[in-house]
Design a protein that fits this description.
Two copies of one chain form a homodimer. Chain A has two domains: 115 residues, 3-Layer(aba) Sandwich (Rossmann fold), CATH 3.40.50; 94 residues, 2-Layer Sandwich (Alpha-Beta Plaits). Helices cover 34% and strands 28% of the residues of chain A. Chain A has eight helices and eleven strands. Chain A has a six-stranded parallel β-sheet with strand order 3-2-1-4-5-6, sandwiched between helices. The two termini of chain A are 42 Å apart. Chains A and B meet through helix 1, helix 6, strand 7, strand 8 and strand 9 of A and helix 1, helix 6, strand 7, strand 8 and strand 9 of B. Bound molecules: adenosine-5'-triphosphate (ATP) (2 copies). One adenosine-5'-triphosphate binds next to helix 1 and strand 2 of chain B.
Chain lengths: 217, 217
Amino acid sequence: KQHVVIVGLGRFGTRLGRTLYQLGHDVMAIDRDEERVQSMMSEVTYAIRGDATQESVLREMGVHNFDIGIVAIGANIEASIMVSVLFKTMNVPYIVARANSDLHGNTLERIGCDRVIHPEEESGRRLAYELFNPDVEEYLGVTSSFGVSRLAVPDRFANMTLREAGFSGPRDKYRVVVIALRRGENVTLIPDSNEMMRLGDELVIVGRDNLVQQITA
Amino acid sequence: KQHVVIVGLGRFGTRLGRTLYQLGHDVMAIDRDEERVQSMMSEVTYAIRGDATQESVLREMGVHNFDIGIVAIGANIEASIMVSVLFKTMNVPYIVARANSDLHGNTLERIGCDRVIHPEEESGRRLAYELFNPDVEEYLGVTSSFGVSRLAVPDRFANMTLREAGFSGPRDKYRVVVIALRRGENVTLIPDSNEMMRLGDELVIVGRDNLVQQITA
Ligand SMILES: Nc1ncnc2c1ncn2[C@@H]1O[C@H](COP(=O)(O)OP(=O)(O)OP(=O)(O)O)[C@@H](O)[C@H]1O
Ligand SMILES: Nc1ncnc2c1ncn2[C@@H]1O[C@H](COP(=O)(O)OP(=O)(O)OP(=O)(O)O)[C@@H](O)[C@H]1O
């Protein structure tokens, strides 16, 4: 369980805060906009109104005691940089900042942020891989041509076993491997080739992207 | 090989277009800003200056002949909606649009977009899972507590076999499974437990998130 402080309740900071809290972490959110603070009250551990560019404000909230600091201010580059520097001077052990441009990101790295996020670029890149194969719901790249894809069981595979559908065993290094079969909240890892697929199931597959494409085509 | 038309060369549209082109697809990019069009000229198949809310402009560029249409306009909600409706009336088979808010996204879905992207929310959610385990470079969710994680081989596992490091065989459904070991561009699927890990290698692991956390802790 980590103690995370998030500055900035735009779309990125808000979703990040909610998800972290749902995952069981302790989340304190700071924003200077009263409305945004109010709507986060029930979604995180603490939501506090304040100007995060004021060191006294951060110190009063005990920011120096947190494990992770997130600077989720986007458009206001100056504030983003100031808060990042304050986190650094207050010795927050791990700092993540969201960048609005390459130069902004470069600056945040030089300040000493441990990780810089470019939400738009990352989404654009990820979508490119998912479009490559529109049936793929989500994709994790391993190399430039090899990845893990999560997809819904294609209609034509309903009520077929993995073997009948053409999936070979797990030791074949050149074809795709079904690493998981999900049915609701139930997940079978490295399912047996006799496992039957039902409509509504999800498959998690690893292999060359062009081979995965043949499955969904 | 898909034929993709992208309207809007912000950060999302630009990265999407470049990546699709690098993946071998045919990409036409349209933006009304001359500078942005110019800088994309060498990065996609065609980059054209124009106002995409004009049907005549889209028709002249043959938009009705494309496989996938992407509306990558963010801030200008009216233009985003107008272009989406034009894609729909021109029978573009698969339409993706980027949304700036939940209401914007809702509207795009009602218009008939096949997929709506919320880059900031998706990045925030993904980061929450990756922070759960800062050593995880990338994460793909399977259920709310189960996922696929890509991580660098921890220092303490360098020059150990998978078995020595404590990874059990692939048929154990309750523990993590190493589904791939990457060394440079070389990927071994479902590696043998005798496989030795070297510093610089990457592991792709599937399992309960809290178990994956124990590996990197
Ligand atoms: N000095 C500050 N102290 C506290 N909060 C701040 C400060 N400056 C900006 N913020 C807050 O940061 C939040 C996010 O910033 P902003 O809306 O500019 O980014 P954004 O790029 O639009 O965010 P997103 O893309 O995630 O929606 C806003 O809610 C704003 O009130
Ligand atoms: N009617 C239009 N025709 C063509 N291009 C347009 C039109 N309206 C806006 N654009 C272009 O869309 C692009 C992206 O829009 P905008 O910059 O508002 O979105 P954004 O949310 O800032 O993008 P990102 O977050 O991806 O950086 C801009 O380059 C802009 O010139």
